[in-house]
Design goal:
Blueprint (H helix, E strand, L loop, with lengths): L1 E6 L5 E6 L5 H4 L4 H24 L3 H8 L3 H8 L8 H10 L31
Antiparallel strand pairs: 1-2
Amino acid sequence: MMKARRKNKKGAERESVTRGSGNVFADLGFARSEAIDLKVKAELAMQIHHQIEELGLTQVKAAGRLGVSQPDVSKLMNGRHTGYSVERLLALLNALEVDIDIVVRPKHHGRTLRRGVVRVMEAAIA
């Protein structure tokens, strides 16, 4: 949520809250398609970070397993995914012993056609 200061009828400042769209990149003004791509990449980078920690790997060991440099691992661990495609991030997750399922299904909203949504989520392990 974003806060903005506004003045009421008496001139006193008050805060108003604007609910976010669920995609911080869209809220920051990126074009819709770019915002969707950036959100997916950020979520994949977060999964890479989580898996590196889960496996107890140092950045150097993770770099060896991923076939990238230690500074590149550091960048990914800090959420900087510039220069990586979604496909490359998926390949990095595979190298970290993560199975990836891609589910494609139609989105139904009556007869109105709308764009689908791409989501990255961690499966619950039973």
